[in-house]
Amino acid sequence: MTHLLEAKSLDAFYGDFQALFGVEFHVDQGESVALIGANGAGKTTFLKVLTGLLPVPGQSLSLEGVDLTALRIHQIAARGIAMSPEGRRLFPSLSVRENLQIGASVKRPGPWSLETVEKLFPILAEKANTPSTLLSGGQQQMVAIGRALMANPKLLLLDEVSLGLAPVIVRDIYETLPMIREQGTSVILVEQDIGQAVAVSDRLYCLQEGRISLEGKSSELGRDEISAAYFGRA
Ligand code: ATP
């Protein structure tokens, strides 16, 4: 079976420094897959590879069987990978709605539009004309996710959604994941909060020093197993 996204023996380098080693990773349609790992494990590097910011050797990464490694950033976006970045990176002087509309500059056909994004996060309709800088952290996170959805991605990358947000806000945001997936959009989420990552994913991968140290169904992984993969064995 062809996976939606597949990394095979994927290595990544910054000059002479190797940050990822033989990564095997896949996502199927509609799946929610978590990626965890300690600081410096390689999570951001992997997201950079997926979005085309960091080129990798040929044939090590494909989307629906198509090699992504020769494609440029905008070509990868056009094929259906969009990211809600860590720190949200909104345009502060633009309104909520303008920020969302920027996401539609890579417009693919699909279920997501201003209307459906504002239905997913109703507060964004209420605040449509508010400059994004005046929003709370949680609301800004919703704009960042909404902006990524506006491109109608097949695969949505969520980088550190919970960073700096109160648990109740994080819960509200992750409660929208099933609705996103019902539309056929797959999700990779990078999370610092391991409990959260387990709770909202079908499968989980752990990176340790650039290598996948654990892969499994989130509901079947034990806490000790995850800790060992995350921190490494003494
Ligand atoms: P964090 O949770 O701190 O963001 P991470 O898991 O995302 O960590 P990466 O940022 O992917 O980790 O870093 C993986 C390794 O690559 C680290 O050893 C880091 O020092 C190194 N690295 C990251 N960016 C660069 C770069 N631009 N040049 C050289 N080395 C880099």
From TrEMBL:
User: CDD domains, from UniProt?
Assistant: ABC_TM1139_LivF_branched
Family of the protein in this entry: Belongs to the ABC transporter superfamily.
The record's Gene3D superfamilies line, in alphabetical order, gives: P-loop containing nucleotide triphosphate hydrolases
- What are the protein's UniProt keywords? Amino-acid transport, ATP-binding, Nucleotide-binding, Transport
Q: What positions does the domain ABC transporter occupy?
A: 5-234
**Do you know which Pfam families this protein is assigned to?**
ABC_tran
What organism, scientifically named, is this protein from? Rhodalgimonas zhirmunskyi
Is Coiled coil a UniProt keyword of this protein?
no
Recorded hits in SMART domains, A to Z, give: AAA
Which GO BP terms sit in this record?
A: L-amino acid transport
Q: Which InterPro entries match?
A: AAA+_ATPase, ABC_transporter-like_ATP-bd, ABC_transporter-like_CS, BCAA_Transport_ATP-bd_LivF, P-loop_NTPase
Gene Ontology terms, MF aspect: ATP binding; ATP hydrolysis activity; branched-chain amino acid transmembrane transporter activity
> What is the name listed in the Swiss-Prot or TrEMBL entry for this protein?
ABC transporter ATP-binding protein
